[in-house]
Amino acid sequence: MPRRGAVARDADEGHAGAAPWRARETVTQPEADALLAAIRAHAPNFRPLGEGLIAPGLLYRSGELASLDGHAWTAMERIGIRTLIDLRGPMEIEAMPVRPPAAMRLVSVPLHPGQGAGTGAGAIDNTAAAQRIGNAYRHLVQAYGRDIAGILHLLAGEDALPAVLFCTAGKDRTGIVSALLLAAIGADSAAIHADYAITNAMLSGPARQRVWDMSTRLATFDMPAGPIVDAMLAADPAYLEAAFDAIAPLPVFFERSGLDGAAIDRLQNRLLPPA
After folding, report:
1. Are 46 and 63 in contact (CB under 8 A)?
2. Where is this region: Disordered (predicted)?
């Protein structure tokens, strides 16, 4: 899809790897980085979505936000967050409720990977586990096309941005919605894969163990023990490709899901950086 012109906005481009900040905020770059660090202390996979592809300060992606403390929520307010889009299911929400400040709108759009997404007893190696994850990705895009289109409509609206997309790990459901959003605004496959793969660096060490523990407790993907964890927690572009292959051609998928050309124009105008 071709890129279309974006409306001008008051943003400070910042620098690579740093927090992007709206120009009306009177914070220095070190202060901005400190605010982002305050959020990441509790949500380690929190980051700009499509950095370099989307205008700075408009859209973020994350794992669960239930662990944010008062200081982290204040940081979220400082970066101007208006809308939180929760992709988790009822069990996850009950176990880890998110309680944002009153000024932030919390929107629940549950996406469930479906039966057979977990490894189960039949998955004895990483290859089998990876196949199950691929199946879960196919199920998510085939079963929830209209829900995903609804999220993109919301983000194209007047009052949603800045916003955060999140699930439990910030990898699978958030990764799929983020990838489809980037495709809708004209990003190519290489850029989409690169944004998705950042999770591998964000969820390393203690952060990786934390996600593993949460997912095991919640049984989001019927988590196993042993080396299969590598396939289960990896942000492997092959998983995205499984999803995209299942709904190709993409323009037809968007149209059938209720996201027409006019809606895509609005989304691009909201999100693309100034030319």
Report:
1. yes
2. 1-22
Q: Which pLDDT score, from 0 to 100, does residue 165 have?
A: 98
pLDDT digits over 48-65, tens only? 999 999 999 999 999 999
Please provide the DSSP assignment of the chain as one string: ----------EE---TTSPPEETTS---HHHHHHHHHHHHTT-TT-EETTBTTB-TTSEEEES--TT--HHHHHHHHHTT--EEEE---HHHHHHS-----TTSEEEE------TT-S-TTT--SHHHHHHHHHHHHHHHHHHSHHHHHHHHHHHTSSS--SEEEE-SSSSSHHHHHHHHHHHHTT--HHHHHHHHHHHHHHS-THHHHHHHHHHHHHTTT---SSTTHHHHH---HHHHHHHHHHH-SHHHHHHHHT--HHHHHHHHHHHSPP-
Among the residue ranges 20-24, 122-126, 198-202, the one predicted with the least confidence is 20-24
15: its two tokens: 């620098």
**Whether the Cβ atoms of residue 167 and residue 221 lie closer than 8 Å to each other:** no
Token pair in block for residue 88: 């988790």
Looking at residue 247, its pLDDT comes to 98
* Low-confidence winner among 13-22, 35-44, 232-241 (lowest mean pLDDT): 13-22
The rounded distance, in Å, linking the Cα atoms of 229 and 129 is 9
Rounded CA-CA distance 193/234 in Å is: 13
Contacts of 80 (CB under 8 A, 6+ apart): 22, 25, 57, 162
For residues 60 and 49, the answer to whether their CB atoms sit within 8 Å is yes
* Token reading at 253: 């998928």
> For the domain 11-271, what is the CATH superfamily, name and number?
Protein tyrosine phosphatase superfamily (3.90.190.10)
Pair 163, 60: CB distance under 8 Å: yes
